[in-house]
Amino acid sequence: MYTDQLRTVLQYQNTIIIEATEQNKSLESAGRIISTLVEQKTRRNHHLVAIGGGIVQDLTCFIASTLLRGISWQLVPTTLLAQADSCIGSKSSINVGDAKNIVGTFYPPTKVFIDQNFLQTLHDSEIRSGIGEILKVHAIDSAESFNHVAESLQKMHANVDELQPFIYSALAIKKRFIEVDEFDQGIRNIFNFGHSFGHAIESATNFGVPHGVAVTMGMDVACQISTKRNLLPAPHAERMRRALRENYLPFSHVDIPLDPTMSALLKDKKNSSTELGLILPVGDAASIERVMISPDQQFVSQLRESLAELA
Ligand SMILES: NC(=O)c1ccc[n+]([C@@H]2O[C@H](COP(=O)([O-])OP(=O)(O)OC[C@H]3O[C@@H](n4cnc5c(N)ncnc54)[C@H](O)[C@@H]3O)[C@@H](O)[C@H]2O)c1
Ligand SMILES: [Zn+2]
């Protein structure tokens, strides 16, 4: 795919092809790529160009930020998720064992080139994955923003060109928060909405659900848990659920076992030593906030019910 369009890039001897798998987003894989770059005599005045989705982006960003104590890099995001969400925000994330995105750095690319044409060849599940993150970003903005995306879901599936205004608005919303909290010390944390549960679902299903689809399921679980704990009025959860469910529906049959989901949740980096740090929609405006919750029996049974409702 894209062999013709990228012929001038691929003919360079120092092009490295990376298979986009979560297993490859590891320290071992980063080490192997670094060894190749060292053999290729990479110097501090060289720069890396990542062409791909979030996995290639995360690996390249991590390597660029650590190799020779930092070399510059540029990004050509080719998935909807990478174009609408991960391409801004400076983060790299690497998995260690089953702890997802547990190691990382902040290291922005010097340039990002978004070419909408890449979206034409994405599988439906990758479009859904990107839409999941678009829904997340707009939920953080406001209930009205979320509803606007929700009303446009069918249109976006019918024609990828319809995605463009939502890519733009997602980046604009995210930019506003990054400018306040670039290093994720405070408010930017709410961009993890859907992610504690989402990462746990990815891990419990052995990555059987694409990242942004797992995040969509995670947002639904967050809404349900929030309602069960009287933190969110039920109509908000129902309103959000309609759009979230429409997005994750083709994956609703995937079995999500409770115990591995719970043990992955307990490893989440937002937790304190005794409590889960969850990002939940709360209150009359369904505002997205960080809530500390004890992982007690009541929580486990609420999680069991919420996972069952995804099916
Ligand atoms: N660093 C960040 O800020 C950040 C933010 C969100 C997600 N992420 C990470 O990003 C990863 C998910 O990234 P992703 O969803 O972009 O997917 P991906 O990188 O896993 O790619 C998904 C699949 O699409 C293929 N692909 C890529 N571009 C294509 C195209 N134009 N046409 C057809 N197929 C194409 C890939 O080869 C792969 O098989 C996760 O590991 C997640 O943790 C990082
Ligand atoms: Zn994400």
Explain this structure to me?
The chain is α/β, with parallel strands linked by helices. It has two domains: 7-119, Rossmann fold (3-Layer(aba) Sandwich), CATH 3.40.50.1970; 124-308, Up-down Bundle (Dehydroquinate synthase-like, alpha domain), CATH 1.20.1090. Helix content is 49%, strand content 14%. The chain is built from 13 helices and seven strands. Helix 9 crosses helix 12 (258-266). The protein is globular, with a radius of gyration of 19 Å. The two termini are 34 Å apart. It binds nicotinamide-adenine-dinucleotide and zinc ion.
The topology string of helices and strands comes to: HHEHEHEEEHHHHHHHHEEH
Bound molecules: nicotinamide-adenine-dinucleotide, zinc ion
Structurally, the number of domains stands at: 2
The CATH superfamily of the largest domain is: Dehydroquinate synthase-like - alpha domain
Indicate the low-confidence ranges by residue numbers. none
Feature tags:
311 residues, two-stranded antiparallel sheet, alpha/beta, binds nicotinamide-adenine-dinucleotide, 2 domains, Rossmann fold
